Amino acid sequence: MKKEQRFLMRKRLLSNKLLITGVMIMLFVIILAAIGPAITRYDAYEMMVENRLKGPGGEHLFGTDNLGRDLFARVVYGARVSLSVGLCVAFITSVIGMMIGLLASYYRTMDHILMRICDGLMAIPGILFAIALMAVMGPSTSNVIIALGIVFTPHIARVVRSRALSIQEETYIEAMKSQGAGPLRIIFLHIAPNAFSPLIVQATFIFAESIITEAALSFLGAGVPTPDPSWGNILYDGKLVIFNAWWMTLFPGVMLILTVVGLNFLGDGLRDAIDPHTKPVTKKRLGLFRPFKRETRSVPTQNASR
Q1: For the chain, what is the mean pLDDT?
Q2: φ, ψ (nearest 5 deg) of residue 70
Q3: First vs last Cα of the chain: how many Å apart?
Q4: pLDDT at 265
Q5: pLDDT 10s digits, 159-191
Q6: pTM over 0.85
Q7: Number of domains forming the structure of the chain
Q8: Three-class SS of residue 161?
Q9: Which domain range does residue 212 map to?
Q10: Beta-bridge mates of residue 64
Q11: Which candidate, 160, 158, 139, 150, places its Cα nearest to that of 92?
């Protein structure tokens, strides 16, 4: 039985086009970030003023920036920063948010306290809240991770809490309570494993949102400080010379879009694969494109004698 379930799950995963596309895009970005420094012979911090704003091609694959630094090396190192920030934020928010959601779903008193705090944090726009936190803590990579962790933890907690509340209505949870099982045993051995699937899906979206927010903070000067390369501060430098050096905004922008799209495809694919009740959007047919069928109505025959 387990072999059949594993076979069906593997078949479901391999037939999911969104999931396969997202995995391929993310593998490309991860491999580029891993082996990129070995491909280029330039350092991301090396300034060559005589080669400033040199176009792509030749010795510099993506060209150079306004200080003569190799743009390909900086984009590759920026990918490392963005992926590490996104991964750390997704992990931290998943752990803390799951703990908050599980405790809030089981204990009513903690539910009122923790969820009101989460509601208050979610009422503030995420980017403004992150900017305020960075203004207090100061610009650095570790502070970006802490700030984004505070911003996105309530979202995870809400998802886990809603899933845990539905699990508590199941019959086996009531049976465990009647047998005298303790709260911690029920929460961590029976509720938490069943709430793990939506947590994984939500974590991929938090991963993507963290990368976007980190780039926005770096673009505004409140994120990763210069001269450390980040897609956000590279875009900020390119904004100043966008009409003379278009490559400074094109290449980091394309990498940012590609990474976020890949993570969104990955999250949508995981949601379709994990939840058997969801159907991919591509299989739905819009009403405008449904084939027209002529309806034929049977007219009752009248009795000739009437």
Answers
A1: 84
A2: -65, 125
A3: 67
A4: 92
A5: 999 999 988 888 888 888 888 888 888 888 888
A6: no
A7: 1
A8: helix
A9: 32-48+58-280
A10: 70
A11: 150
